[in-house]
């Protein structure tokens, strides 16, 4: 069993903990954008090294141009996973792709964390096939960062859309994995975990949420987190909670709703300020403050969905990410790589799962029964 | 059967179509706020009349102060439904409450639409008991307005939280009711209806969504709407769609997430502009434009969740609504009252339900099977 201490203790400086595996291809902006983001990241992190996956002949001149050839090893891969490829197609025909190669490098422990801007479904399918689910995990999840009123500026929400279903046991696993991610990714010693529902009263919500409410409450000590109970959609950006647990359907809708609302307001704000000369002049005077605000809620700064529940960690960067977005995803990956996160989260979930098994398998049996379809 | 024409044709001017039934009690701000909102509404709508429910001795001086005594009839009711009362308690002990009295007035056709700021669960339970579900409706829904890029400034989303479950048949009913509401409440002759999902591809989403996708597509002609297919969370404020159909769990989370995001950004914007004297001066110059923006996204302007699927229409105003918010809910109620909306939506759903029955009851049997629990 992993004790709470080992989860926050610094790990020994394995060489691989300084190495990231990066898929150069598959993003909407092409490999030049990935390399530009890589260059920005490497100039901030002097000890970091990268394995870059894609067509060598195309990538070599880009690295030379940014003068980062000495810190980047290219793994030549001729094929690319397209945004429109279905997961099943990717699994059958993907062995020569840069995405496959990027995952192989973490599988073989040459690098600690893999990063790709490619197709989410394909990346998750390939990651599950090659890296396998960690012990005690039934459904892996995607964790995203949500701008919040907390000191770190962010909350963690999972599942953001890896699987449209989650039963009570999955939700418990998400709580454990999310708490470990908040500890290692956001540096919060004892994260506060909340379960997303339509009200905060105990009698509200779906049947599996009421059971998960009990399970997560009981796991707070093993998981070294504080359970704050049910929370509502309005609490997603709040400072009441650090980790928000929900199923991938609800999480995906909430994430896209939040992004859509933020985009609408930004557009309306820009439109309002450009409406007349007086407000344009006003905006000019306030531009320093408005710029800082824009940076605070910039979706590129929260770029990086982390796949949790596999034996290694994979980060999905937005397909449309620009160099700033790619660099943000790489910084997040490096932070997790250095903390030895993959091993810690696996140990945490495995220990909780084995304890739950010792305590009797009632809830797990329920879980299997509710897995049928709906 | 109701033809599409009758759904948009003006109804004959029954006296009751000019009368609203308003619960003066149960809001967080007390009856003085409701009466202030009522006064603002009545000065805009010269032909409107109101039946106001609550303790006569308390309300009479308020009406006199606003000089609206001649246009408001008080129905004396001594009890109040509290925000903390559970629906079961309200049903057992609520007969002398102002909320009960407000619903009775529409049940007896003295008024066309009822409005209350009280407890949502209690209001829905009482409305279902007294007004009964309309023919063809299994689960009533709450429709809310969402600020959008559309010319009207709003989209309709339902269910915003009346019921945490919805099967394929419920989702079809929501599409029919939502389209009728958009036609009568937002004046959109042929509303575009979308079904909320985690992606727009046909293979995505839960099983019941794939069936609902078929059902709603087939009902577009009867319902006199255009079906645009699956939409995502980011499309909620878009101009691709007028009516968004989803289950009450997802809808409630999305609604509160959108509100929470908008509130966070407003706070951050205010904070940014007050940060230094230069930006404060800038904000002063831009205040006209910023004020218009604030008004455009003001949640008080979209105040009013409409209960659909009952034999009469009930509007839930925010419990914390101020006079502006109450007036907004009353304006919406009056618009629906004048259009004869309650009868139109009931006729529309009943005709679709009977057509679906003629076409065979396969999907309805599926609906019953999926009603078990989860």
Automatic annotation (TrEMBL), chains A, B:
EC category name: transferase
Catalytic activity from the UniProt record: a fatty acyl-[ACP] + phosphate = an acyl phosphate + holo-[ACP]
This enzyme's EC code(s): 2.3.1.274
Subcellular location: Cytoplasm
InterPro entries: FA_synthesis, Phospholipid_synth_PlsX-like
Annotated keywords: Acyltransferase, Cytoplasm, Lipid biosynthesis, Lipid metabolism, Phospholipid biosynthesis, Phospholipid metabolism, Transferase
GO terms under biological process: fatty acid biosynthetic process; phospholipid biosynthetic process
Pathway annotation: Lipid metabolism; phospholipid metabolism
Transmembrane segments: none
Complex formation: Homodimer. Probably interacts with PlsY.
Name assigned to this protein: Phosphate acyltransferase
Gene name of the encoded protein: plsX
């Amino acid at each position: 069993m992993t004790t709470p201490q080992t989860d926050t203790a610094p790990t020994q400086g394995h060489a691989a903990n300084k190495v990231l595996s990066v898929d150069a291809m598959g993003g909407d902006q092409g490999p030049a954008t990935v390399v530009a983001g890589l260059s920005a990241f490497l100039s901030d992190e002097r000890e970091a090294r990268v394995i870059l996956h894609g067509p060598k002949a195309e990538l070599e001149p880009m690295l030379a141009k940014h003068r980062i050839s000495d810190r980047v090893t290219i793994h030549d891969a001729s094929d690319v996973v397209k945004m429109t490829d279905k997961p099943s197609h990717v699994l059958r025909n993907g062995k020569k792709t840069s995405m496959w190669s990027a995952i192989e490098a973490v599988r073989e422990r040459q690098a600690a964390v893999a990063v790709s801007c490619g197709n989410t479904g394909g990346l998750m399918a390939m990651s599950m096939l090659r890296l396998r689910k960690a012990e005690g995990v039934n459904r892996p999840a995607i964790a995203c960062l949500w701008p919040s009123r907390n000191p770190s500026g962010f909350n963690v929400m999972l599942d953001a859309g890896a699987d449209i279903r989650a039963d009570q046991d999955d939700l418990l696993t998400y709580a454990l994995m999310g708490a470990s991610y908040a500890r290692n990714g956001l540096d919060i010693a004892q994260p506060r975990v909340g379960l997303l529902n339509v009200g905060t009263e105990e009698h509200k919500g779906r049947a599996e949420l009421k059971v998960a409410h009990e399970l997560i409450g009981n796991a707070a000590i093993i998981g070294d987190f504080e359970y704050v109970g049910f929370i509502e959609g309005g609490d997603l950006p709040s400072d009441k909670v650090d980790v928000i647990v929900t199923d991938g359907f609800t999480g995906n809708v909430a994430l896209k709703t939040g992004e859509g609302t933020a985009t609408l307001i930004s557009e309306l704000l820009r439109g309002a300020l450009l409406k007349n000369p007086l407000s344009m002049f006003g905006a000019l005077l306030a531009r320093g403050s408005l710029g800082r605000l824009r940076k605070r809620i910039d979706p590129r700064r929260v770029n990086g969905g982390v796949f949790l529940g596999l034996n290694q960690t994979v980060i999905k960067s937005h397909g449309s990410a620009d160099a700033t977005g790619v660099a943000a995803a790489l910084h997040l990956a490096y932070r997790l790589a250095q903390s030895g996160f993959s091993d810690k989260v696996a140990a945490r979930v495995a220990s909780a799962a084995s304890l739950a098994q010792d305590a009797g398998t009632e809830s797990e049996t329920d879980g299997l029964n509710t897995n049928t379809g709906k």
